[in-house]
Amino acid sequence: MEFCDKCGGVIIPRKAGAKIVMACRSCGKEKTTTLKKDFKIKSEVVKPETGPEAGIVVVEKKAAFEALPKTKAICPKCEHKEAFWWMQQTRSGDEPPTRFMKCTKCNHVWREYE
């Protein structure tokens, strides 16, 4: 593994036409390399079979809210009684997280604090 002289980021190989260029993932600094002609870039995605990462589900942006849990909450805009909810740390780490709600009917989003 190589690191960038400029910012210290990881340098990875990528194809630039017929050449292989080593490029920093952080700042984009490039340098050409003298690699063999039979050098091939291979990338592989490894999915964990066990552990906490095994249960992570990635969903498309359009379907993201439908994947969230629902709860009974009254929408302040349309007074519908069901909403999607999620929690996010919006303040410092020693403060409780903020709970966001999104109405299942009108898509209005509001916050609830602990």
Record keyword descriptors for this entry.
2 domains, elongated, N-terminal domain of TfIIb, 4-stranded antiparallel beta sheet, mainly beta, 8 strands, 114 residues, single chain
CATH architecture of the largest domain: Single Sheet
What is the average of the pLDDT values?
A: 77
Q: What letter string, H or E per element, gives the SSE order? A: EEEEEEEE
CATH topology of the largest domain: N-terminal domain of TfIIb
Number of helical stretches of at least 4 residues = 0
Structural class: mainly beta
Q: Considering DSSP H and I runs of 4 or more, what fraction of the residues is helical?
A: under 10%
Task: Point out poorly predicted stretches.
Answer: none
N-C termini distance: 45 Å
Proportion of beta-strand residues: 25-35%
Describe this structure in words.
Helices cover 0% and strands 33% of the residues. It is elongated, with a radius of gyration of 23 Å. The protein has 114 residues and is mainly β. It folds into two domains: 2-32; 58-112, N-terminal domain of TfIIb, CATH 2.20.25.10. The strands form two sheets. It has a four-stranded antiparallel β-sheet, with no helix packed on it. Strands 5-6-7-8 form a four-stranded antiparallel β-sheet, with no helix packed on it. It starts with a strand and ends with a strand.
